[in-house]
Design brief:
This protein has a four-stranded antiparallel β-sheet. A four-stranded antiparallel β-sheet has the order 2-7-4-5. It contains eight helices and eight strands. It has a domain of 104 residues: Jelly Rolls (Sandwich), CATH 2.60.120.10. The longest helix is centred in the C-terminal third of the chain and has 27 residues. Helix 4 crosses helix 5. Strand 4 and strand 5 form a beta hairpin. It has 187 residues and is α+β, with helices and mostly antiparallel strands. InterPro entries: cNMP-bd_dom, cNMP-bd_dom_sf, RmlC-like_jellyroll. It comes from Dyadobacter subterraneus. Pfam families: cNMP_binding.
Length: 187
């Protein structure tokens, strides 16, 4: 539970509230390839990655477009489901055997109502995820493929060796051929 506690503490939570929060988390384990969240469905839980790696993707015509990676200490959720109660647009697939900690949205909302500190923690969590989303958007719009790859290496140093290059190329918005060329130029 070390990685999950690290993530929760990162945004500031007292030991009492941390203890309350951790006591309601449910440990779940899934194999590599498991689709944890499926597009078009309402997902009623939030997951914290203890061990493993995941990717979020969209089905676009005849291909899957990866737009996010999550590893240890990251949070997995469907934004549409969590915030709006609507079916999600994304699927989240586990790329390794994974151990996760799960909390239902219903239980989390009750915690927010009963513990102001946890409610503020939840707000900080959402703010940090929004900032990451904005950074990814700006990167895709204004940076070259080479700079995006260098940023990826710096942001996800432990992901590069654990993820299929096709998923990385998709995340960067380039072909695998272009990714291979960039990698060769940077060696």
């Amino acid at each position: 539970m070390e990685n999950t506690i690290k993530k929760i503490r990162q945004l500031g939570l007292s030991e009492n509230s941390l203890s309350d929060f951790i006591s309601i988390l449910e440990k779940v384990e899934y194999p590599k390839g498991h689709v944890l969240i499926k597009a078009g469905r309402i997902e009623r839980s939030v997951y914290f990655v203890e061990t493993g790696i995941a990717r979020a993707y969209l089905d676009k015509e005849d291909r899957e477009v990866t737009f996010w990676f999550g590893a240890e200490s990251d949070v997995l959720l469907s934004y549409n489901s969590f915030f709006l109660g609507l079916p999600g647009y994304e699927s989240i697939e586990l790329l390794e055997d994974s151990v996760l900690y799960k909390i239902s949205n219903e239980v989390l909302q009750k915690l927010y109502s009963s513990d102001l500190e946890i409610a503020n923690w939840g707000r900080k969590l959402v703010e940090s995820e929004l900032i990451k989303t904005e950074e990814r958007f700006i990167s895709r719009q204004f940076k070259t493929a080479t700079v995006r790859y260098e940023d990826f290496i710096n942001s996800y140093p432990n992901v590069l060796q654990r993820v299929n290059l096709g998923h990385i190329a998709s995340y960067l918005g380039i072909s695998q051929v272009t990714l291979s060329r960039i990698r060769a130029e940077l060696k």
